Amino acid sequence: xANRRKLLRSVPDVVKAFGGNAAMxxxxxxxxxxxxxxxxxxxxxxxxxYRMAAKLDDDGLDVDPRVFGVSVGPVRDHPFLSNRVA
Length: 86
Prior knowledge:
- By secondary structure, the protein is mainly alpha-helical.
- The chain has one domain (9-77): Orthogonal Bundle (434 Repressor (Amino-terminal Domain)).
- It is built from 4 helices and 2 strands.
- Helices cover 41% and strands 7% of the residues.
- The termini are far apart.
- A two-stranded parallel ribbon has the order 1-2.
């Protein structure tokens, strides 16, 4: 049976996985108030998405794409990924 990785489903989950506000702020080289704002707004600036996802992957964690504002609908509905012919 394969190991199930923990799925982080919210900005607070991501911050907690980094060790809390202060630890995440140090990792991002931002002020803790910036991280607090991310939590309050449920929004992490896009420039951090790839780096955070890669670090969390290294730590054995997955991030729900919706945390980073990526909608997750069926591929058939995505204009660039579908097999539809115009």
